[in-house]
């Protein structure tokens, strides 16, 4: 059996960014009925984009 470990929340910084309205609409449609917030979706998308950039090097 796996041992339970209390997860740590990474430090965060609030950033105010502007999204085109159509992108906001598309993200909100994509997360309907999912256990996901707009912020979590965007953070994951940025992580994947950064990994893709790294892979191209």
Overview of this protein structure:
- Helices cover 53% and strands 0% of the residues.
- With 57 residues, the chain is mainly alpha-helical.
- The model has no long low-confidence stretch (mean pLDDT 92).
List key phrases describing it:
53% helix, mainly alpha, 2 helices
In short:
The chain is an all-alpha fold and 57 residues long. It is built from 2 helices and no strands.
Detail the topology: elements first, then pairings.
Elements: H1 21-31, H2 38-56
Low-confidence stretches: none
Number of distinct helices: 2
| DSSP, total strands | 0
Secondary-structure element string: HH
Helix content: 40-55%
């Amino acid at each position: 059996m796996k041992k339970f470990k209390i997860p740590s929340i990474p430090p965060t910084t609030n950033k105010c960014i502007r999204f085109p309205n159509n992108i906001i609409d598309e993200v909100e449609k994509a997360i309907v009925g999912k256990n996901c917030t707009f912020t979590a979706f965007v953070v994951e998308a940025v992580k994947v984009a950064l990994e893709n950039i790294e892979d191209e090097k």
